[in-house]
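step 3/5: co-fold with magnesium ion
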Amino acid sequence: MALVVQKFGGTSVADIDKIKNVAAKAIREKKAGNEVVVVLSAMAGETDRLIALAHKAAESPNEREYDSLISTGEHVTVTLLAIVLNSMGYRAKSFLGFQVKILTDKAYKKARISLIDTDAIKKELKHGTIAVVAGFQGVDEDNNITTLGRGGSDTSAVALAAALNADQCDIYTDVDGVYTTDPNVCNKARRLDKISYDEMLEMAMTGAKVLQPRSVEMAKKYNVPVYVKSTFSDKGGTLVTKEDKDMEKEIISGITYDRDQAKITVVHVPDKPGVAASLFTPLSEHNISVDMIIQNVSAEGFTDLTFTVSKKEMKEAQKIVDATAKAVGAKKVEVDDDVAKVSIIGVGMVSHSGVAAKMFKTMANESINIMMISTSEIKISCIIKRKYTELAVTALHDAFGLEKKK
Ligand code: ASP
Ligand code: MG
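step 4/5: write tokens
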């Protein structure tokens, strides 16, 4: 007997028929003799709807109430699934975060799980119950409801799998696995059978929407094998797992893009100690994450500083930077949200040379100007004009021969 955690995303629970389909998947595992824990997201679009409501109610909604409100989408789906399973003659019980209890820190909207009490779920599993757990939510030590950030039910599922020492963690979604790139952008995209945690993490962080980055971090930390599968078909699937020899043979595993990018340049800043700190500290105090940062070589004691933020946060970031730029004596602040980030990812980069050169050459051949570059051990990202995103992705996919399985 194995313990299986199954997670279903919003499109998989979008209506009652789909919830019945989820029930069938849970029952199939149950009938195979396994213990089953199902983690659900809210119905597709529901969390967005709740967020919009909160902002209609107040410009900056109280954080405690906001988290409590936006967690309710999952309340609906877990109870509906339990009702369906019960009506079909199966023991099933829904659990909200606090009922489990999924303890988190106090950071509303992006809380981190600190501990999961598995007693209540284990007790139910022993009785043959299918435990249906609300994803995305937890509770802090003062009983306030918290949420884990958008897409957080992936993290709930992996965390539960780790805490319960599950044999398997299946993430069911509307695509049948992880692809070399977005099939909507490049029709030669190929599904990967396997991908390493590190590559998956870079892909998730640079724009692949399939898994929340934090869930991958958690899977790696606790060595939870994660299977990304389609809710609507039994074919395919991608295993996210420890790196192995096969993976190293591939130079590049995937190409991602992110159109949610904006570039901010602080022009003609005095090049002296403390300037970067004064520019970036207020941003971090406002919880704005800065991605790439480039500082030009200084000339006559002045330099330009360019960095990227999420497009959604550009306005707020600009306001903050405008104020600090003035204070440190910069000439002006320029913003550009007509950009995108294209990244190539692969553990094979570590042992192959010329990967960056090949990426840049490919862009040059398409006459795409690279505005910013950043690298990690297994990733190279470029900021380019947004309208070239698809062209860049397709050209890179060809250049690195990703369509063919080697
Ligand atoms: N319902 C939440 C969201 O839309 C959590 C999730 O889908 O994983 O972000
Ligand atoms: Mg998701």
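step 5/5: annotate
Residues 180 and 254 are 4 Å apart (CA to CA).
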